[in-house]
Amino acid sequence: MRLGYTIFDTALGRCGIAWSDAGITGVQLPEAREIETRRHLFRQFPEAREQRPCANTELAIEGIVATLRGRDVDFSDVVLDLEGVTPFNQRVYDCVRGIPRGETRSAEDIADELHVPEALHEIAQALTNNAFVLIVPCHRVRDIGGGLDKPSPNSGIISKRRLLSLEGARPHAGLTLFDALLAADRPRAS
């Protein structure tokens, strides 16, 4: 299967995107320097070659550019290459893709929606391994303690809080790990 990639400009810096004949394989948000964005993309997709994007990739790029300008974007027509993504992770990604712009959910909310309340660790792993940042908006899942505060390796220098602010989410939506640990240590009302 042929893999391609390109680097493109956004309001927040140069992003990268990789694709196969089956769909988008990964998105890399801007690093501090373009060479780092390229390096990160190449580490994930060493067989990809820089080339002109296909129509599906152009659609994804237009959506990413608009999202990073604060616009509301519907990525539902963007096809993802889910080869190698476990069925469970696909279910998590489908659930996360359904979270409306400017809203957040907790990992527990995702677990409840998927009817797997015991799978918080697996949900955290799925979100950490999300190669489709923005298209699968894992930034809309609030951070909590217990290892769920790990960002996607593809989020570059853009924080979850920044992405949520671009969407108009409330400031509390980007709960930090420190805040979550403090909340976990507080006694709960009975």
TrEMBL record:
InterPro entries: MethylDNA_cys_MeTrfase_DNA-bd, MethylDNA_cys_MeTrfase_DNAb, MGMT_N_sf, WH-like_DNA-bd_sf
Signal peptide positions on this chain: none
Annotated CDD domains: ATase
Listed name of the protein: Methylated-DNA--[protein]-cysteine S-methyltransferase
NCBIfam families for the chain: ogt
Key words, A-Z: DNA damage
Domain of life: Bacteria
Domain Methylated-DNA-[protein]-cysteine S-methyltransferase DNA binding residue range list: 87-169
